[in-house]
Write a structure and sequence with these properties.
The complex is a heterodimer of chains A (about 250) and B (about 240). Chain A is about 80% helix and about 0% strand. With about 250 residues, chain A is an all-alpha fold. In chain A, helix 4 packs across helix 7 and helix 7 crosses helix 9. Chain A starts with a helix and ends with a helix. In chain B, helix 3 runs parallel beside helix 5, helix 4 packs across helix 5 and helix 5 runs parallel beside helix 6. The radius of gyration of chain B is 18 Å and the shape is globular. Classes of the chains: A mainly alpha (about 250), B alpha/beta (about 240). At the A-B interface, helix 8 and helix 9 of A face helix 2, strand 7, helix 3 and helix 5 of B.
């Protein structure tokens, strides 16, 4: 037991390297927030595309469903590696502009942006499913009432259905955000120095895994309150439901 | 003003509407009665195409809005035809006033202020002047249904459709809603009312239509259809309903 604590909970080592791990964690946070933001928007767009009405738009619906199925079924790591390799190759061949193939926007490195794009593509697909469940949970009568008042499909979605769906999807979206935040660790394969990579660097240099432990602590400081927030939101909705609100 | 001819609708093998021909005149109040499954709600929902008919024609003011198997000018039709549902279907994230205002601004293109004052006026008309800023979950079923009526009226429709609007209400709340509808009828609104309220049909309607198994079996003045029906099926239905 003593050995275990000495190995993983070397507090003096943690204190010594706190700044480095915190700097790595700051990259994790940035990646999560930027990736999460774009995934949120992309997911909403996908769910809207998926629910477009009429037979003329069936190909759009079909393509959207195919995209969502594909991205939900592929490991994020594969998306990260494939995307970065593909874009970098295309850029070096000159097929696409260098600024797009090797993005280094707003002073962030290209692994950071590959990570953002990969997270957006994959988590957008997950979130699209969450939105869809939210939209489908809005009673059909709401659409009928909107349409009977002369609203178009788009107006009914925008003013009536989506505002109600968004309330229902906050807890599952927060869950997805927690998962996304943890999955940012995968981007360390591209050499991005985030929390996990920082721990890894410290381990190779000092043979001390306490850097990992510190990283884990930092994750928990954010993820546990988020998980509690999810519970609280669900509880609040249940109470509303028990009062008889649809 | 609303002419329906040869209307057909089926779900798979089930023919819900077989051959519906009906003419609704301006200012007329028509009550549609019949056993459940007779197709009366489906007919009503076809009139503003919440259900797409499979065949037949619908004309509004002589202008074809459904024919040759497809709708024509759907948005125009829905704007001119108001509908009130059994389950109210108020928008739960909006106050009573916002419920009544939203389509006025987004569909009719009215200014928000104009829409809001019209909403206040209509909500007062249905006896809810004190509930303008309440959310639907704070209103009783009867109050919600009256908001729903005001919401449909706010579009200044030419015809109002009522789909069993009192069926989901507690008995003591029914009268308030029926009173509003009665007042509306007296003001000259054209109304098609699917209902189980035989007293309302008798007192308020100009014409009663009895439907069964996808057909209009009998129609005529309320005292004829309800008081002295000519068809066996109508007699049987009324016997069951009025015996209560």
């Amino acid at each position: 037991m003593e050995v275990f604590f000495d190995t993983y909970f070397d507090f003096s080592f943690m204190a010594e390297h706190f700044d480095e791990v915190l700097a790595g964690f700051w990259v994790t946070i940035k990646l999560s927030v930027v990736g999460g933001f774009f995934a949120l928007i992309w997911g909403l767009m996908l769910s809207v595309l998926r629910q477009l009405p009429g037979k003329w738009l069936a190909p759009v619906r079909g393509l959207t469903i195919a995209y969502i199925d594909a991205l939900r079924g592929i490991p994020l790591l594969l998306v990260i590696l494939g995307l970065s390799a593909g874009l970098a190759t295309l850029a070096s061949e000159g097929t696409i502009p260098r600024e797009i193939g090797i993005p280094q926007w707003f002073g962030e490195s290209d692994p950071f942006w590959y990570g953002v794009i990969a997270l957006t593509l994959t988590y957008g697909a997950y979130m699209a499913e969450v939105y869809r469940a939210g939209i489908e949970a809005v009673p059909r009568g709401q659409t009928e009432a909107s349409r009977s008042l002369g609203m178009s499909h788009g107006q009914a979605m925008r003013f009536v259905i989506i505002p109600q769906a968004v309330r229902k999807v906050i807890p599952p979206l927060l869950n997805d955000f927690i998962a996304l935040m943890k999955d940012t660790a995968l981007i360390s394969v591209l050499g991005l120095v985030e929390t996990v990579q920082t721990g890894s660097d410290l381990y190779s240099e000092f043979f001390n895994p306490s850097g990992y432990t510190l990283g884990a602590f930092l994750f928990l400081i954010v993820t546990i309150p988020l998980a509690r927030l999810v519970d609280w939101q669900i509880k609040k909705q249940d109470e509303k439901f028990q009062r008889g609100i649809p | 003003m609303l002419t329906v001819s040869g209307l057909k609708k089926s779900y798979g093998k089930l023919d819900v509407l077989k051959d519906i021909n009906v003419e609704i005149g301006e200012g007329e109040v028509v009550c549609v009665i019949g056993p459940s499954g007779s197709g009366k709600s489906t007919m009503l929902r076809c009139l503003n195409m919440l259900e797409l008919p499979d065949g037949g024609r619908i004309e509004l003011h002589g202008k074809e809005v459904f024919g040759e198997g497809r709708p024509k000018g759907l948005d125009v039709l829905r704007r001119e035809v108001g509908m009130v549902f059994q389950s109210f279907n108020l928008f739960p994230h909006m106050t009573a006033r916002e419920n009544v205002s939203i389509a006025q601004t987004k569909v009719r293109g009215r200014k928000k202020k104009e829409a809001d004052s019209r909403s206040a006026e209509l909500l007062a008309k249905v006896g809810l002047e004190e509930k303008l800023d309440e959310y639907p979950d704070r209103l009783s079923g009867g109050q919600q249904q009256r908001v729903a009526i005001a919401r449909a009226l706010a579009m200044d429709p030419e015809v109002m459709l009522f789909d069993e609007v009192t069926s989901a209400l507690d008995p003591e709340l029914v009268k308030g809603v029926l009173d509003v509808m009665k007042e509306l009828a007296e003001s000259g609104m054209t109304m098609v009312v699917v209902t189980h309220e035989m007293n309302f049909a008798r007192e308020v309607s100009d014409r009663v239509i009895f439907m069964d198994q996808g057909y209009i079996v009998e129609e005529g003045k309320p005292e004829e259809v309800l008081g002295n029906p000519s068809q066996e099926r109508t007699k049987k239905f009324l016997g069951l309903v009025l015996a209560r």
